[in-house]
Amino acid sequence: MSKNIALDGLKMNERLTKFFLVYCGAGLLVLTVIVTVAVPTVLGFEVGGVGNEAYLEKMRRIREIRGFVPLSIGDTEFMESKVRNTLKYTDVLYGRFVDSESDLHIFITYWSPGRESPRSVAFHTPDNCWVKSGWKSIRVDDWKVPNDAQTSINSLEYRVFEKSGDSREAYFGQFLGGEKVDFGSSVPSNLSMLTELLHARGWVWRKQSQIFIRFDRREVVLAGHDELLINEVLGILFPVL
Description:
By secondary structure, the chain is an alpha+beta fold. Helix content is about 40%, strand content about 25%.
């Protein structure tokens, strides 16, 4: 009789131990999500990101750069709506610099905190969208930002695309909370698998804004003025702090 009672006691202790381990683990997981996601949401701040007001001020300064001319993102109202619905951005800036030596265009899209996952944004880079539009990638490299540029950004992705005898260079980068995304994985290395999974299910996302920027131009050997324009834009978006 006493032996059975002892066995029952051991089984009860095992069950209680498993119970506490499971629920303590679940509680810790929930607490982690609350601290990293819910708290910033309630308090209304973002972790290391660019706020809406700061972003709008940067866009105003870029539009005032000499020679900048705004362009429509689509040939028709329908195409504009299609681009907007596909990219799901908060704001966009598209235009060209008339003083450019090589038809330099600029395209900037901004996503407010929590609007899109980095994986979704990375899907719309030239490596994917341009290739699907018939362009062939003939060169893949990095473009090092000159040391004298007043920006915290060290490099951009660099590509050369070719289509129907025409070739264009593309310089681009995706930035999450001000940090450049590694296109090797399409997801920033500091993102936890849990956070990405939860956002993929449409539940939560970290409070960080995202910016995608692309410069493209005719392929040229030298275009010093263009590089000055690129450096100026990067200095406005990502100044040295």
